Amino acid sequence: MIDRPYVTLSCAVSLDGYLDDASPNRLLLSNPADFDRVDAVRARHDAILVGATTIRSDDPRLLIRSESRRAARVARGLPVDPTKITITGSGELDPGAAFFAAGDADKIIYATSPAATELGRTALPASVVDLGDRIDLDRLLRDLVERGIGRLLVEGGGMILTEFLARRCYDELQLAIAPIVVGDDRAPRFIRAGIGPINDHVRLAEVRRLGDIAVLRYETPTALDQSLARILAPTRALLLDFDGPVTPLLAEGRDGRIADRMRQVLAEHGVDPPAELRTTVDPLRILRWATPQHLGPDAAAAVELACIQGEVEAAQLAPLTAGAAQLLTTCQAAELPVIIVSNNSAPAIAVFLDRHGLADRVTGVIARLPGRPDLMKPDPDPIRRALVRLGRPATEGLLIGDSVTDVEVAMITGVPVIGYARPGRRPGLDLAGADVIIDDLEPLTNALTTRGSTAG
Ligand SMILES: NC(=O)c1ccc[n+]([C@@H]2O[C@H](COP(=O)([O-])OP(=O)(O)OC[C@H]3O[C@@H](n4cnc5c(N)ncnc54)[C@H](OP(=O)(O)O)[C@@H]3O)[C@@H](O)[C@H]2O)c1
């Protein structure tokens, strides 16, 4: 049973473990790329919590900056910005602080009794929750669950982060380390004294370099299962990308061979492609450009035919992605419809599914429409057609894809999305907004099996 939100702890620290220096001005420990990363993290949480001292010293707005991330939240029926939360024992909060004044997000203040009484008199634009003599994190987190907060981001400062670490109330810890030394004992530390070891609670899950900043992501052994259970709870159908999650269709140079063949057809029609398409190995990039408007109907049809023939040949050679057959079998057993939603051609997908005896395990295939490369993902058309066929709203679908294009189309259409990260692809999927990222299909299959056995 889920009795607290999924909790992510996040902060930026100096090399010597400080969150700030001791001066009245805030010390910047992130660069633009890291701010963008944090913006993506904020966008996938329901609420952001900071301590009252952070509000007083930094005056943070706690809003999502990217317009596309804001729009994606709206497409899902979520508030534009996450709920803002703070904790106070003193009640010293300025009504003019950006926490209250910036944006339209809901605000919640968790306070001890005297502070709550005081705050109640000040008519702040926030819900004030009285937690008694002392603030018990378990109680606070239970209250958040009752308010529908499924994912909580804790952004600091040091006292708050230390409390969550000490109580082991977290699933994930994201630490950006800046090449800055503060060297001043008066400055706030990331972790205050008195915390025991955490290496029996978390493991290092990812290391990312953003210019001079190193981002470390730690997670508990159950973090991924927790995330998958949450994202699968409303799922009534899978929308499965083909090239990647089902088969590495265009791997091992198959993509480049198709692209070469398409360029050959262009040459036969006396067409010289633009510079950026002369060396690309991506056949779909050429196809997007090779429209009847650009080339005339005959040349466009010939280029498309070359692409289809190349894809069919690839489908006759390509292996199954590890775990794909088990995933489809599990969905069938769980009576969870699966629609393949792909930018590849229908004949190639049909050949592949027949070859591997999987045709009966998918409910339908939405492939690239002949003559309409403009309607490939990230155009919303294929996803919308899949949802119409299923008779389900976007929030009951779940897209599984391996490209930024898949995540982008999910953001536009409001469909939750799992990024299937091939090596090196995780940061792109993360920044694009994937709700959960998996490196292989097995944890997803296991989560579907668990869900099936506990349903009803
Ligand atoms: N680098 C980063 O990523 C980052 C992120 C955030 C903050 N910061 C820095 O961190 C510094 C602030 O950190 P901090 O450790 O001093 O403070 P903090 O954690 O932001 O806030 C501590 C305050 O929260 C309230 N509080 C916390 N636990 C409580 C409990 N159990 N019961 C009642 N009240 C509770 C109290 O507020 P009252 O005092 O009102 O009672 C307490 O003084 C700032 O310099 C800021 O710039 C850095």
Outline the fold blueprint.
Elements (H helix, E strand, L loop, with lengths): L5 E8 L18 H12 L3 E5 H7 L8 H9 L7 E6 L9 H4 L5 E5 L1 H8 L6 E4 L6 H10 L4 E6 L1 H9 L5 E6 L25 E8 L2 E7 L3 H10 L4 E4 L13 H15 L14 H7 L2 H4 L1 H21 L6 H10 L4 E4 L4 H10 L8 E3 L14 H10 L6 E5 L2 H10 L3 E4 L5 H7 L3 E3 L3 H13 L2
Parallel strand pairs: 1-6, 1-7, 2-3, 2-6, 3-4, 4-5, 10-11, 10-13, 11-12, 13-14, 14-15
Antiparallel strand pairs: 7-9, 8-9
The structure holds NADP nicotinamide-adenine-dinucleotide phosphate.
Structure notes:
It is a single chain. This protein is of the alpha/beta class and 456 residues long. It folds into three domains: 6-221, Dihydrofolate Reductase, subunit A (3-Layer(aba) Sandwich), CATH 3.40.430.10; 237-249 and 318-454, HAD superfamily/HAD-like (Rossmann fold); 254-317. Helix content is 39%, strand content 17%. It has helices at residues 32-43, 52-58, 67-75, 98-101, 113-120, 137-146, 158-166, 223-232, 254-268, 283-289, 292-295, 297-317, 324-333, 346-355, 381-390, 404-413, 426-432, 442-454; strands spanning 6-13, 47-51, 83-88, 107-111, 127-130, 151-156, 172-177, 203-210, 213-219, 237-240, 338-341, 364-366, 397-401, 417-420, 436-438. The strands form two sheets. A nine-stranded mixed sheet has the order 5-4-3-2-6-1-7-9-8, sandwiched between helices. The protein has a six-stranded parallel sheet with strand order 12-11-10-13-14-15, sandwiched between helices. The longest helix has 21 residues, at 297-317. The radius of gyration is 25 Å and the shape is elongated.
